[in-house]
Amino acid sequence: MFFDGYGYHGTSFEQTYRCYPASFIEKPQLETGDKIIMPPSALDRLASLHIDYPMLFELRNDVTERLSHCGVLEFIAEEGMIYMPYWMMENMLLQEGDVVRVKNVTLPKGTYVKLQPHTKDFLDISNPKAILETTLRNFSCLTTGDSIMVAYNNKKYYIDIIETKPSNAISIIETDCEVDFAPPLDYKEPEKPVPSLPTDEEPPAEAEPKFNPFTGAGRRLDGKPSMQQAPLSWTSISKDKQVDTRTVTGQPSSGSTSRNASRQSEGKLVFGGNASRTPKETKKEGEKDGKQEQTKEKEEAKFQPFGGKKYSLRG
User: Fold this and answer.
1) How close are the terminal C-alpha atoms of the chain, in Å?
2) Is 261 helix (H, G, I), strand (E, B) or coil?
3) Residue 2, CB half-sphere, CA atoms under 13 Å: how many?
4) Do 104 and 12 form a contact (C-beta atoms < 8 A)?
5) Are 56 and 141 in contact (CB under 8 A)?
6) What stretches of the chain show up as alpha helix (H) in DSSP?
7) What are the Cα distances from residue 165, in Å, to 53, 91, 105, 219, 262?
8) Prior bond of 193 cis (ω within 30°)
9) Residue 5 · residue 44 · CB < 8 Å
10) What is the pLDDT of residue 5?
11) What is the rounded distance in angstroms from the CA atom of residue 242 to the CA atom of residue 236?
12) Dist. CA 109–CA 141, nearest whole Å
């Protein structure tokens, strides 16, 4: 059976057309939904078959065996041609002018659909649920395996249809459908910190610098150059402070005298003329002081106060 000599036959609508993107007919609103534009002869054939509304169609690419579903917006295309959204042509691997088979179908109303955004940028939208609901109002059906396009704020977001119930293709016109989201394709779970295993060996402690007091250089007040000596360390000072057990009488030994002399020249500032004297001069002065003390003791021994005789007044 042929309809007006154009090749429509049988009790169902099935025809092949050459497809072109919506930009060829200046209908940019097609890109925001899943509807196509068909020729007027298709409307006449569908009306004679008493097709149930809404009109839904199966699109098939016989070369790649890709399958999808769509609705119809208008019947104003040239005969033998249809216009469809470009994202739908990408799903079916169709190029401009390729042949696509169109067949009318009846789809059950959907109860569940699971979506997966391509990028996590879609989840950064202030209210992605409201944007998705507004976009899906322009769709008449969904097919498992398709990727739909959501346009928002001059940016395009692509979303995969992972699962639909109760069948692989569902109608979403005037129905309550539960929507679930899968993690985006570029989502990466944060890495959990790996706990470090306890070890018996402790890392070596950093060596702390030792404190050396009195490491400055001495300066003379009279302007004369001083003898530059090596700075004293705390251990050398503590050794100099030790008392020789053999000098019990309080007289310093020769070793201690030399050490005291070197200590005066190295670690202390000495005022007066004793700073430049040698240990021998110091010893001679000590002997002179000892002789002077002995003469004073002899003189003091001669003088005896109140050493007179006792007399009585009675005679």
Assistant:
1) 192
2) helix
3) 4
4) yes
5) yes
6) 40-48, 86-91, 128-136, 234-240, 254-267, 279-302
7) 21, 21, 17, 98, 102
8) no
9) no
10) 39
11) 10
12) 9
The torsion of the CA quartet 177, 148, 32, 12, rounded to 10 degrees, works out to -80
- Please, what are the averages of pLDDT over each run of 10 residues along the chain (315 residues)? 42 90 86 92 89 89 92 93 93 93 93 90 85 89 91 88 93 89 80 65 64 71 64 49 44 50 48 49 57 62 63 62
| Cα distance between residue 100 and residue 14, in whole Å | 11
Taking CA atoms, 312 is separated from 306, 309, 315, in Å, by: 16, 10, 6
Predicted confidence at residue 202, as pLDDT, reads 59
Those residues whose C-beta lies under 8 Å from the C-beta of residue 159, and which sit 6 or more positions away, are 115, 116, 117, 118, 122, 132, 147, 148, 149, 150
**Residue 102: other Cβ atoms inside 10 A:** 21
pLDDT at 164: 93
Q: Residue length, the chain?
A: 315
The two beta strands, 66-74 and 35-37, are: parallel
